Amino acid sequence: MKILVTGGAGYIGSHAVVELAQAGFQPVIVDDFSNSQESAVAGIEAILGTKVPVHRIDCGDAAALRQVFETEKDIKGVIHFAAFKAVGESVQKPLAYFQNNVGSLLTLLEVMKEKGVENLVFSSSCTVYGIPDALPVTEATPTKPASSPYGRTKQMCEDIVHDVAGAPDNQIRTILLRYFNPIGAHPSAKIGELPLGVPNNLVPFITQTAAGIREKLTIYGNDYDTPDGTNIRDYIHVVDLAKAHVVAVQRLLDRKATDTVETFNVGTGHGNSVLEVVQAFEQASGQKLNYSIGPRRPGDVPAIYADATKAEQVLGFKTETSLADALASAWKWQQTLAK
């Protein structure tokens, strides 16, 4: 069965394409490569030993997206990754984030409806919870004002999906996957996180610092109300996260969804501070990191991690990879890039 993967050359998308193919699906990549690189497709194909269809288009271009559906024919579902994703950048460029993230979803839903494609897995985020009153967060945790324009785009996209689901003529069924913090790389080290320019995420900045590409790592704030003063996040290995998408797609295709929109947290259920991640990386890699403490970064939430019970009980999904192993895979990937 053909599954369209928007943003399929991106970090999470590329790993999802691999897992889909290995599960027997036929992934079709749509990506404009504005925030990804062609080498990711080569890595995917090296892992799979086969070519994967790639359409280089902007998901906000309805005519181009429509053409993909017509060319590929018989697409049974869509995983929608395509979005800008840097919290700090979204504070600087809010209009670009609203236009790209919200606009691309509107276009996709319009074309899916037109072409009769009923199944959608949407890439959401734990940022929809804002600054939660209690941890861990469950799917029933109230969404609060987002701390960044990026978070607001994800909230708006979720609202759009729910409103579309409530329309009398709606045929689309959606699973919203609220990600926590994906890290690491495929065990083959043929695909991994490929930030363009200075990384916005913690782990690639760590690995680039260890590799000597960056002079030092800046930890943004050590005065948060957490045990060691640094931010706490739920770090999930990207391959585990990719596997969750395969499970979600299968659930939709098997008509097992109990509602037109279902929501699942996808995390480990455990939080680690920035300093804990630094220390775990040093142990996993044998590299000593040069780091310093800087000011807080706009848009950062002090602490958030998942209650992953629903995903385990309903989807049958549970993460498998430890923080140490995920960090070791990220370091292996970084070393591959240096060759």
From TrEMBL:
| Species of origin | Hymenobacter properus
Q: Which gene encodes it?
A: galE
Under which name does UniProt file this protein?
UDP-glucose 4-epimerase
CC cofactor: NAD(+)
**NCBIfam families, per database record:** galE (TIGR01179)
Task: Fill in the subunit field for this protein.
Answer: Homodimer.
- GO cellular-component terms in the record? cytosol
**Catalysed reactions listed for this entry:** UDP-alpha-D-glucose = UDP-alpha-D-galactose
Q: Where is the NAD(P)-binding domain?
A: 4-327
Would you identify the family this protein belongs to, as annotated? Belongs to the NAD(P)-dependent epimerase/dehydratase family.
This enzyme's EC code(s): 5.1.3.2
Recorded superkingdom: Bacteria
What keywords tag this UniProt record?
Answer: Carbohydrate metabolism, Isomerase, NAD
TM segment ranges = none
Molecular functions per Gene Ontology: UDP-glucose 4-epimerase activity
SUPFAM superfamilies noted in UniProt: NAD(P)-binding Rossmann-fold domains
Q: Is this entry keyworded Protein transport?
A: no
Single Gene Ontology BP term? galactose metabolic process
* Keyword NAD assigned: yes
* Listed Pfam families: GDP_Man_Dehyd
InterPro entries tied to this protein: NAD(P)-bd_dom, NAD(P)-bd_dom_sf, UDP_G4E
Listed pathway(s): Carbohydrate metabolism; galactose metabolism
Question: Which Gene3D superfamilies does its entry note?
Answer: NAD(P)-binding Rossmann-like Domain, UDP-galactose 4-epimerase, domain 1
